[in-house]
Amino acid sequence: MKPYVKFGLLITVILGTLAWLAAGGISETKTYYKTVAELKEMGDDAHTKRLRVAGDVAEGSIQRDGRRVSFVLKQEALTIPVIYDSIEPLPDTFRDGAQAVADGKIGADGVFHASKIQAKCASKYEAKPGEVNKQVTKTT
Amino acid sequence: MENIGALALILSFCLAVYSVLASLIGKWKKKTYLVVSAERAVYAVWALVTFASGLLVHALLTGGFQLSYVWSVSNKAMPTVYKFAAWWGGQEGSLLLWSWILASYAAIVVYQNRRKFRDMMPYVTATLMVTMSFFLCLITFPLHPFEVFAVGKEITTIPDGRGLNPLLQYWTMAIHPPMLYLGYVGFIVPFAFAMGSLITRQPGDAWIHTTRRWTLVTWLFQTCGVLLGAGWAYAVLGWGGYWGWDPVENASLLPWITATAFLHSVMMQEKKGMMKVWNMVLVSATFFLCIFGTMLTRSGIVSSVHAFAQSPIGKYFSIFLAVHIAAVVYLILDRLDYLKSESQLESVISRESSFLFNNLILLASCFSILWGTMFPVISEWITGEKISVDAPFFNRVNIPIGLFLLLLTGVGPLIAWRRSSLESLKKAFLWPTIGMFVTMGALVALGVTHLYALMSFGLCLFVLWTIFSEFYKGSSAISAKSGINLAAAMVELTHRNTRRYGGYIVHLGIVAIFIGFTGAAFNQDATVEAKMGDSFKLGAYQMKVSEIKQGENENYSWGHAVVNLAKGGADLGVLTPEQRLYKADRQPSSVVSIRRRLNEDVYLNFAGMTADNSKAVIQAYIFPLVSWIWVGFAVVIVGTLICLVPSKIRYQFARTKVLGVVAKDAKVRKA
């Protein structure tokens, strides 16, 4: 066999294996981004897929019980209850009013069981002190 | 003052644009004075950007809260060092830092080469300054660091700022971004030389030789940046992970991977005159990924835990990248004749082949990470549904890749150029291979059943064995010849060919890092609720919560638990995980407590109090071998620095016009 044929075969085998691993990895971990409204409309399909839903943490809804944390995620007028129970501690930015993203599945009871939560503090990026108008100084 | 800063930035932007035009026109019309003025403009840009940065840093240190940037990232109570680090604590400031580093690099390159490469330097200057103009354009127009709070024409004075995100108030976070930027930005220099060489149709590898140090130094900075980021995540984020395949982390890893591939494949070009097109592609890809990484972290295209603000700069970056990619593709295709390979692959079992597979597998890893990171964007294009993939996807693909790379690390350096006989393979690899299987057998006997962990430990031993045998062979020959002892001979050996033996030391560091990674297969954790005086067990450790304290200072209020640690009756001291609440922005932050040892770390996080405030919630972890990552990190730094020391003997390879010259035929010349 010519060396180039050998190289071609080896490369195909390596890339093929990796592609196979990647395809398996994707189908195993793929997570669908959904809004709360879409979640409510999904029906039975919602119970089998891994989902990611974003919204604000409703004020006063966080209840901690050891490492198990439950809260309500709010997107405009719609809400969904969420339960989080995982070894990873919640991010420090997770608290009332924060923007949060939850990954997980919906249970038959309509509660979202999150396995991962990301959060960022809304106030940090929106509110400005007082009522000052921000203007760019014009330089000439 | 902010007007002067803004003015300096606008002027520097104009000068950068001028520099590009003057270089190109001067070269085209053969007007030397224009080329020289373009180079002086580079110095002027550096001076202006330095001045603007100085103003911003001054405002940060003295509390110029009328500037919206200063207000958003600093406050009075912060320690001075973090006030300084706030320079890169936010969007506008980090882009200013980016620009300043680029301006400094450009000034150094122009100064170093003021009498060299007159032919291609105008293009090098132009390439550097195109990127410079782009970044200065970003901070002059959409993301202005000198924006002020004003009502009408009156500048508002504001008493105090919001403060730097507490997560960033940690020492590695203070140096991680500049390190990463030094690495990201630095890769533009090899890229610029590659382009200069391509445009002027230079024969030979002058661009590779002249940028070898740049490449190594910037690679080292990238390595430091990535690993400091990992170290920060481990010590600060509270869940004990150092890598979560977050888009922002991936962004920093991608150019590192292609840079690593480039470092290896340039050897093929230098020694065999092969892979010339490939090297052009790699150096360009690295540069593009650096820009792409900046775009990912700065524009919020992909959602990330790092929570950088959304901003409109994504489209600027897309245009910049598209134009550059088109230009590079055109240049390479147009000048393929100058990039012809001087020799051919002869056998699958050869040094060339090991380089080839090293590159293939690194690129596959890079592609899989890029694919996974961009999956939400890609899937939205194709199916209309936004789908993300998670850490298991990345691990599934990249763990086998890592193991294969580890194998190549051991095999590659010992295998002969052109082709290897079975005899020489047996001589080089028989014992390491036996050692590998004995290690794996012993581990199975000890009860380790994790397949990847077994393979990883086995391969680590294999690589260690081959590296040490290389050092031993070389230094015992020197010691027999000159009568010095083995240790001195080893230093002598390394000094004679710093590049080769420095490279081996880098490989040693990589092995240590792999040992650290492999430890993750044996992590243990527990979450407990404990009141004062309660005890609990994790692994072989007994932990007792002896005290729960609370207090405050001007920057934050805190609560911590004092946990006594013991193992088999022996007292191992106390750990004090802490929870802080920063006053400026009411943001909580945990400070974990870690007992670091080479065999395993004990890691405690104080997650807060239970709802009725009677018990502390403590998360306890055991992370075996994780410290080896940081040990390996140190070894990699040492190895890279050794590579930078000039070799005592300079090897010259006679390869011009001769197909496939074997390395041992190389002429040796005393330097």
Quick rundown:
The complex is a heterodimer of chains A (140) and B (671). With 140 residues, chain A is α+β, with helices and mostly antiparallel strands.
Structure description:
The complex is a heterodimer of chains A (140) and B (671). By secondary structure, chain A is α+β, with helices and mostly antiparallel strands. Chain A has a single domain (26-123), classed as Nucleic acid-binding proteins (OB fold (Dihydrolipoamide Acetyltransferase, E2P)). Helix content of chain A is 27%, strand content 36%. Chain A contains three helices and eight strands. Chain A has helices at residues 3-29, 36-42, 122-125, and strands at residues 31-34, 50-57, 63-65, 68-75, 78-85, 99-106, 112-120, 134-135. Chain A starts with a helix and ends in a 5-residue tail after the last strand. The model of chain A is unreliable at 122-140 (pLDDT under 50). Among the domains of chain B are: 1-163; 522-624, Sandwich (Tick-borne Encephalitis virus Glycoprotein, domain 1), CATH 2.60.98. Helices cover 60% and strands 13% of the residues of chain B. Chain B is globular and about 80 Å long. In chain B, the strands form four sheets. In chain B, strands 5, 6, 7, 8, 9 and 10 form a six-stranded antiparallel beta sheet that branches. The longest helix of chain B has 33 residues, at 351-383. Chain B is an alpha+beta fold and 671 residues long. Chain B is built from 19 helices and 15 strands. The model of chain B is unreliable at 654-671 (pLDDT under 50). The interface between A and B is large, with 51 and 74 residues. Strand 8 (134-135) of chain A pairs antiparallel with strand 1 (148-151) of chain B.
